[in-house]
Amino acid sequence: MNEIHNEIRNEIRYEYMYPADLTRAVQKLPVFFVPTGLLEWHGNHLPLGQDTLKAYGICIEAARKLGGGVVLPPQYFGRPGYSTYAGTLTYSEEALYPLFYEMMGQLKKVGAKVIVIITGHYGNCQVDFIKKVSGDFAKANLDVHVIAKPEYEGVEVDGQRPADHAGKWESSMFWAMYPDKIRWETYDTKMNDMKIYENAPLDYYKESAEWDFGEDLRETSSIALGKKAIDIITDAIVDEIKSGLAR
Known about the structure:
Blueprint: H1 2-9, H2 19-28, E1 31-36, H3 50-66, E2 70-71, H4 93-109, E3 114-119, H5 124-140, E4 145-150, H6 168-177, E5 190-191, E6 211-212, H7 217-220, H8 223-245
Parallel strand pairs: 1-2, 1-3, 3-4
Antiparallel strand pairs: 5-6
């Protein structure tokens, strides 16, 4: 019974917390993690929610290393995006700006001193947006330290930036975190069946009718590489959080 009780008391996922759990967590470490991304095409071997699920797993691991904090549920609202590829949903900045700004205000209300927004979805549209809205919020709320970045920012693994679109880095990290959700049996190195939506709203990028990964990800990806990348990435996030808490 004590083990079960301790497990409940140590819950870090916001949606599974009870009021007393949240109060206790905030008193211990007033750090809130926001895993965000997009529902977006990621080849035939990764699910549409890959970006956010990756960010969610990274936030969970960073909170574990930190020894506390609160991790929000995965958020799938993001900027473009391979907008015309199968399954992709994208949103305008006009729609997302108040959502993210008010969300940070709500987190401040419940006690946040550090807010960590990790986007598993990349591209200038997304990265510039989260930095803009978080920067605006931080300027107006000097008592809250906001970290907003793609997980790869400021990190190298084996001399490389661990970032791509459904390539060896994302595939390896996802494989390490969700081994039962990757479908190597449906993987194709080259594809021409992923662009199906004409005149897609918010289609900011020129998208090719063909996709070539340029390598066989079944050979270049691995769970070990994914774990290595996640370990380095989460160490960097934890260091940045500790600096924010020490302000």
